Amino acid sequence: MILAGDIGGTKCNLAIFRDAEGATLLPIFQRRYATRDFSQFEDVIALFRRHAAEQGTGFVGERISAAGFGVAGAVVDGQLHANNLPWALNSPELARGLDVNVENIVLLNDVVATACSLDRLPAKDLAVLNQGVLQPNATRALMAVGTGLGEALLLWDGRQYRVFPSEGGLAGFAPRTDREIQLLIHLKKRIPQVCCEDVLSGRGIRAIHEFLDPAVRHPSFDGSGVDPAREISEKACTHSCQVCISTLNLWTEAYGSEAGNLALRALAFGGIYVAGGIAPKILPRLKDGTFFRAFCDKTLLSPVLARIPIYVVLNESAPVWGAAYQALAVSRMRQLPNPQRKAC
């Protein structure tokens, strides 16, 4: 059995898989929980085990051979350093709690986990924003927006893609238009150093709405239990609030611009992948040309960027699958004789 999860500041998505032939995994049981409802990760695992047992999955009584978790933050020497996650996570404690060899615990950034899933996702899980001209084995880049903003690079090593993590979401926000400059000035009144994810995140959507018109408020702004970013996005997509429409337009432009910046830094001719919880929910807005125009708006290199394929990852469980396959790879590697083992 492989246990895997996507552990974020908003949600905790857990799943168990059975190892099948051909280095493939079969999903057995999956459940999503709200992170804010738990004081520690161990409580989530305990509840997940109980729910799995109630479903008669056979999870109880079977030993977990390996576990992989994509987590919202940087993982250094098996220790999580997170901005948006309230829990302390590290490999040794997870190994003890799950009764798994510590070498079979994979703890990695959630965006890295998503990147690890890309070659495992079926075509139906990817929406094409720009067909472009794909260059085989060229560098890829991925950015994911949800509670925060994460970025990662994928480089071909001659045999497979290797994922390189990044904390690009904490890089300084670079305004492109006069209105984005005004937004930056507005945000700096309360945030001394405005980073990309202060704009490109769920909280960034609300911040833009308040920047455009602080007099217009919605029920979610007063702690009704509804996510303000979701309410703003839904009102924008149903054309029921003009401020929400303007908010989503500005946010989408900033998203496209940062994707273009990432494409330039990485020369990502293998494709830009847009992931995270927000993108699938606003797919019509991403497809209307706003995102792509901002993506290409880079002076003399606009024609070059226009040739880069852009995909939206529709499967929100992609980090779970990526973490699961990384755990499977580690488990299988440990089963090989020492001379046959290869470093990832």
Topology:
Layout: E1 2-7, E2 11-20, E3 24-34, H1 41-54, E4 66-71, E5 74-76, E6 79-81, H2 91-98, E7 105-109, H3 110-117, E8 126-130, E9 140-145, E10 149-156, E11 161-166, H4 178-188, H5 196-199, H6 202-212, H7 228-237, H8 242-266, E12 271-275, H9 283-287, H10 290-296, H11 302-305, E13 310-313, H12 318-335
Parallel strand pairs: 1-4, 4-7, 9-12, 12-13
Antiparallel strand pairs: 1-2, 2-3, 5-6, 8-13, 9-10, 10-11
Helix pairs in contact: 3-12, 6-7, 6-8, 7-8, 8-10
Q: What structural class do you assign from the helix and strand content?
A: alpha/beta
Oligomer: single chain
**Secondary structure tally, helices:** 12
Just give the CATH class of the largest domain: Alpha Beta
Strand tally is: 13
User: How many structural units, i.e. domains?
Assistant: 2
Rounded mean pLDDT is 90
Radius of gyration: 21 Å
Biggest sheet descriptor: 6 strands, mixed
Low-confidence stretches: 339-344
CATH fold category name of the largest domain:
Hexokinase, domain 1
Structural description of this entry:
With about 350 residues, this protein is an alpha/beta fold. The chain folds into two domains: about 1-110 and about 315-340, ATPase, nucleotide binding domain (Nucleotidyltransferase, domain 5, 2-Layer Sandwich), CATH 3.30.420.40; about 120-315, Hexokinase, domain 1 (3-Layer(aba) Sandwich), CATH 3.40.367. The protein has twelve helices and 13 strands. It has helices at about 40-55, 90-100, 110-115, 180-190, 195-200, 200-210, 230-235, 240-265, 285, 290-295, 300-305, 320-335; strands at about 1-5, 10-20, 25-35, 65-70, 75, 80, 105-110, 125-130, 140-145, 150-155, 160-165, 270-275, 310-315. The strands form three sheets. Strands 8-13-12-9-10-11 form a six-stranded mixed beta sheet, sandwiched between helices. Strand 9 and strand 10 form a beta hairpin. Helix 3 crosses helix 12 (about 320-335), helix 6 crosses helix 7 and helix 7 packs across helix 8. The protein starts with a strand and ends in a 9-residue tail after the last helix.
